[in-house]
Amino acid sequence: MSVLDKESLTIELTRVYAAPRELVFRMWTEPEHLDKWCRPESFTVSSSGGEVRPGGAWHSTITSPAGENYRMGGVYREIVENEKIAFTHQWLNSDGSRSPERLITVTLEDAPEGGTKMTFVEGPFDDLEAWESNGEGWSSVLDSLGDYLKSGS
């Protein structure tokens, strides 16, 4: 389920994964897993790092099939083991400029049908173009997480 709220320019994406919350949480917090799925389909993670704790910074560079690099980073705001991860997200442009900083919140709960219900919220966005682009990108990223979990991670 995806909700792109045009009025508030907020993205809300929900997925149910056939995996326990503890495993889905580890996918978000352990670099050896993040680097394998946290990118849109056909992109690769070329570098990443960070400290998963409130106040800890993170950074990542993803590379497109055409060889273009996209850098991003932020700061973890809240970590509740197996339940919630909140962090800021900002694109770091090659000219030294940065996109507006947005808050991302990932919540995990047991799904009624089994597995884990994950809700991803990002926003608010300043403009419609960034909102649409990020909604498509994150939807692809969360699909990559589902594929990675199915592969036996």
Would you write up a description of this structure?
Helix 1 (21-29) packs across helix 2. The mean pLDDT is 91. This protein is an alpha+beta fold and 153 residues long. The longest helix is centred in the C-terminal third of the chain and has 23 residues, at 128-150. The chain is 25% helix and 42% strand. The protein has helices at 21-29, 31-37, 128-150, and strands at residues 2-5, 10-17, 44-50, 57-63, 69-80, 84-92, 102-110, 116-123. The protein is built from 3 helices and 8 strands, in the order E-E-H-H-E-E-E-E-E-E-H. The chain has an 8-stranded antiparallel sheet.
Distance between the termini: 23 Å
**Order of adjacent strands in the largest pleated sheet:** 1-2-8-7-6-5-4-3
In total, how many beta strands? Answer: 8
Task: Tell me about the largest β-sheet.
Answer: 8 strands, antiparallel
Shape: globular
Q: Work out the helicity level.
A: 25-40%
Mean pLDDT: 91
Provide the gyration radius in Å: 15 Å
Strand content: 35-45%
